[in-house]
Amino acid sequence: MSIAATPGVEVLEPHECWQLVRSAEVGRLAIAIMNQPDIFPVNYVVDHGSVVFRTAEGTKLAASTLGSSVAFEVDGYEPDKGEAWSVVLRSSCPQIAVHQGAPMRGASMERHRVLVTYGSKRGGTAEIAEWIGEALRAAGVAAEVAPAVSVTDVSPYDAFVIGGALYAMRWHKAARRFARRHRDTLAGRPVWLFSSGPLDRSAEDRDIPPVRGVIRIAARIGVRGHATFGGRLTEQPGGRMATAIAKKSAGDCRNRDDILAWGRSIAEALQPVNATAS
Ligand SMILES: Cc1cc2nc3c(=O)[nH]c(=O)nc-3n(C[C@H](O)[C@H](O)[C@H](O)COP(=O)(O)O)c2cc1C
Questions:
Q1: pTM given for the model
Q2: For atom 29 of ligand 1, which residue has the closest CA?
Q3: Phi-psi category of 6—alpha, beta or left, where left has phi over 0 and alpha has psi -120 to 50?
């Protein structure tokens, strides 16, 4: 039975729904990550068709950034009329823009100092990190690129991009260790993650969610976003397992244009804008 056919239930027009959403202050953000549902109450306002909420960097933010679909529910009760109402906004592909409550260090984007760091075994992920650094610098961001094993001091950086090659469904050890070792600093600054792995074109066709370990890292430190890019495997990569995989899947599945575009999107997000989800 549809809601419209339920006695005593009135289906509202979209503009009436937005009016009700505007009239309230607290809503519930519902997210599914790895098929696990979760709900978070948030204070929000409506701004030109976007739901705007402020949140500390942490699980909620990581989840809403990484979740493949999001629902936002607001409901209320009008005692005078004896009527209850409920509005649910759904998005299978939420557009999330985030801004920390306090502005980032440095008044202008040019002064953001960003570290792009990575764990890579055969160089494919290292090159992706270089491309991201290139895109950031082209957009006026002071980006430095360095292997995660070589970074000891993270204090000079305002923001981080951390990437890991995927091996057996796990991030490269150096990327995992970096995230663990510097978790306290990372938790207080904007962080983006990327993974590089699939040896086919799947990463170009759809958003591939992070592997379980990366979801845990993201939840722990709070991240602004994650992307999975295709990987690269040469015909003679060395190593028994890699050689066996290379027989079927050798090739370069990294899309440089997509990677540069992702780097540019990070540069844009570093500009001071308000947090909006629409
Ligand atoms: C032994 C082995 C295991 C791999 N496991 C995965 C995997 O679990 N998921 C994935 O997407 N790609 C996997 N890949 C593909 C690599 O992630 C891909 O080749 C990547 O570009 C390697 O990055 P690197 O050159 O920076 O080391 C695997 C490759 C090898 C050789």
A1: 0.67
A2: 167
A3: beta
